[in-house]
Amino acid sequence: MEKSIRRxxxxxxxxxxxxxxxxxxxxxxxxxxxxxxxxxxSINFPSPYIQRLGDQFPxxxxxxxxxxxxxxxxxxxxxxxxSVGYTNITNLGGIADWTGPVEK
Length: 104
Hints:
With 104 residues, the chain is an alpha/beta fold. The chain is 31% helix and 19% strand. The protein has a single domain (5-97), classed as Oxidized Rhodanese, domain 1 (3-Layer(aba) Sandwich), CATH 3.40.250. The chain has helices at 10-19, 31-36, 53-56, 72-83, and strands spanning 5-7, 24-27, 43-44, 64-68, 89-94. The longest helix is centred in the last third of the chain and has 12 residues, at 72-83. The radius of gyration is 12 Å and the shape is globular. It starts with a strand and ends in a 10-residue tail after the last strand.
């Protein structure tokens, strides 16, 4: 695992994201998947466009907490963000393991 990427259970990770000053909870699923139900407070940034996240969050130390459906896309997205210099990335895995509420 890259040293700038952490792996954390989605339920614990969402709590940490919400408690972290300037923490950003990022759903990397498609816009359609996001509309079907997402974790409250998350933003949608589909994985094919993840490098554009830098336009919105240019500070490479921004705490980013990523999730998708199963964990595969969030893992790839984390690696990509690390390769462009982000230093505080957490892969939360998949929303399939989320036990909290979702919003549509």
